[in-house]
């Protein structure tokens, strides 16, 4: 195959410019050092300072992680409610999953960035449907939350343990007049409510109070990494770690996420079997959500417009004969373009495949259309379904170009891992049953934060951060959303 004949990658590529630590056993997680062979080279250099911070984080996680005396001590203090306000030697943020895989990956990267900034250790609650989905990211320790951890269920915006409610109820106060006696942990609710995060979640004074808790439990569906850039206290560190701000998910996602061997097996078999031999790969992600079910014909037409207007797919002739056929001219060398259709629905693949199977292309290119799976509906509760979803995110990220669907966190993760600016199918104008512009090309590879926090704790009116911070933009697909640039 073409992959086995290509030269061995330089060690720097294998470790993604120093992002990855070399000290792992390879067989237990084949994707860790293999994924880099499939990605195009990263457009963003990794800053030496980020590498230094990651190694420091890993050392701290080994010191404080599950199985250590320090962890046992911290858990004992949590259980006994003995939170005397002392800053613990080890401090934790517990991540609880909600929503689909794309949302989970966005919120987990954000939680890790928060942990990096605040000296906390991230512990991941892995429900059965995520078992073995990802490999351990930190050498010599575990990021999995031990199963006997007591506070995993029942949290919502209404919980008394929620930071915003503690503030409202005077349990904690900005000026410290709560006497320094704190509950043993705080719940940080970062789930969007009508496309906003709660007020009092990303003002500097809130983060000073949050910092006093040794234990935090966090639940989020959002890419709140963007909101961390709104807290002035974090900005200097963020700038040192990410000289190119639009590379946060790209680097941290590649650092943290390594598909487990089952999901990676799917990736390798499909890539080697269908995609590796092509001259070019185009990823096409079509996400149809049940609550906004765009009719097939409308969406299919929009995909064709987008790929035609941007020269992404060869046009077909009305004949099934090859261009220039019948004459004595030798056929031109044919280029093969593989189109990877990723969707829960199978009809986009069916139609597109039929078109290129039946007709010749005007430029003689061979267009081969594939779809790895079509589960029909979202089944976040099923492990094998999530393994296919993760495999398909990675397959998409190995493309040379991607067309993705507006609003989809699944699509965001794929193009951000790839370091590709997608062609993003614009949201439909439902009154016209059409999108005026078929697809837009965002200036950044970053995911969008759909739900910016309210910032009225700082100013009387709610300021628009994109108007003041040069590295923030509103999103092409979600007008009120924010993304790093
Ligand atoms: P979003 O809803 O598009 O923002 O993405 P999420 O990943 O958060 O949730 C959608 C979930 O539906 C995914 O995690 C998968 O479980 C499933 N899903 C959606 N699209 C696809 C797809 O193209 N392929 C596969 N295998 N699963 C998908």
Automatic annotation (TrEMBL):
Its EC number is 2.4.1.-. It is a single-pass type II membrane protein. One of its GO terms (cellular component) is Golgi cisterna membrane. Keywords: Cell wall biogenesis/degradation, Glycoprotein, Glycosyltransferase, Golgi apparatus, Membrane, Transferase, Transmembrane, Transmembrane helix. InterPro entries: XG_FTase. One of its GO terms (biological process) is xyloglucan biosynthetic process. GO terms for molecular function: galactoside 2-alpha-L-fucosyltransferase activity. It holds the Pfam family XG_FTase. It is found in: Golgi apparatus, Golgi stack membrane. May be involved in cell wall biosynthesis. This is Fucosyltransferase. It comes from Oryza punctata (Red rice).
């Amino acid at each position: 195959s073409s992959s086995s004949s290509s030269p061995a990658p330089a060690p720097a590529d294998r470790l993604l410019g120093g992002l990855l630590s070399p000290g792992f056993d390879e067989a237990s997680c084949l994707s860790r050092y293999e994924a880099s062979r499939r990605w195009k080279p990263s457009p963003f250099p990794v800053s030496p300072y980020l590498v230094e911070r990651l190694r420091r984080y890993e050392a701290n996680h080994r010191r404080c992680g599950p199985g250590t005396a320090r962890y046992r001590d911290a858990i004992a203090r949590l259980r006994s409610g003995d939170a005397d306000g002392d800053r613990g030697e080890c401090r934790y943020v517990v991540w609880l999953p909600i929503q689909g895989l794309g949302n989970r990956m966005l919120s987990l990267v954000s939680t890790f960035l928060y942990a990096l900034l605040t000296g906390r250790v991230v512990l991941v609650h892995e429900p059965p449907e995520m078992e073995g989905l990802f490999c351990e990211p930190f050498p010599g320790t575990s990021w999995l939350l031990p199963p006997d951890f007591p506070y995993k269920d029942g949290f919502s915006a209404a919980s008394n343990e929620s930071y915003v409610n503690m503030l409202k109820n005077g349990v904690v106060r900005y000026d410290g007049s709560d006497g320094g006696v704190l509950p043993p942990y705080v719940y940080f609710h970062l789930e969007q409510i009508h496309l906003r995060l709660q007020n009092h979640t990303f003002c500097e004074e809130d983060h000073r109070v949050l910092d006093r808790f040794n234990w935090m439990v966090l639940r989020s569906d959002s890419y709140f990494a963007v909101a961390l850039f709104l807290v002035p206290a974090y900005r200097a560190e963020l700038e040192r770690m990410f000289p190119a701000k639009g590379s946060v998910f790209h680097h941290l996602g590649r650092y943290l996420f390594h598909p487990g061997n089952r999901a990676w097996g799917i990736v390798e078999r499909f890539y080697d079997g269908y995609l590796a031999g092509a001259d070019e790969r185009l990823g096409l992600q079509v996400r149809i959500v049940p609550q906004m079910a765009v009719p097939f014909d409308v969406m299919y037409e929009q995909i064709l417009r987008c790929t035609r207007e941007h020269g992404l797919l060869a046009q077909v002739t009305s004949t099934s004969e090859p261009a220039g056929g019948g004459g004595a001219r030798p056929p031109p060398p044919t280029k093969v373009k593989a189109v990877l259709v990723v969707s829960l629905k199978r009809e986009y693949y069916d139609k597109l495949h039929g078109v290129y199977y039946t007709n010749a292309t005007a430029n003689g290119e061979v267009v081969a259309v594939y779809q790895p799976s079509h589960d029909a509906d979202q089944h976040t509760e099923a492990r094998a379904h999530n393994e296919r979803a993760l495999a398909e995110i990675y397959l998409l990220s190995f493309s040379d170009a991607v067309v993705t669907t507006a609003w989809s966190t699944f699509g965001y993760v794929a193009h951000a891992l790839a370091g590709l600016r997608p062609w993003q199918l614009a949201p439909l104008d439902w009154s016209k049953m059409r999108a005026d512009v078929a697809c837009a090309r965002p200036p950044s590879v970053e995911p969008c934060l759909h739900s910016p926090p309210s910032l009225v704790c700082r100013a009387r009116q709610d300021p628009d951060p994109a108007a003041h911070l040069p590295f923030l933009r509103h999103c092409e697909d979600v007008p009120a959303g924010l993304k790093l640039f």
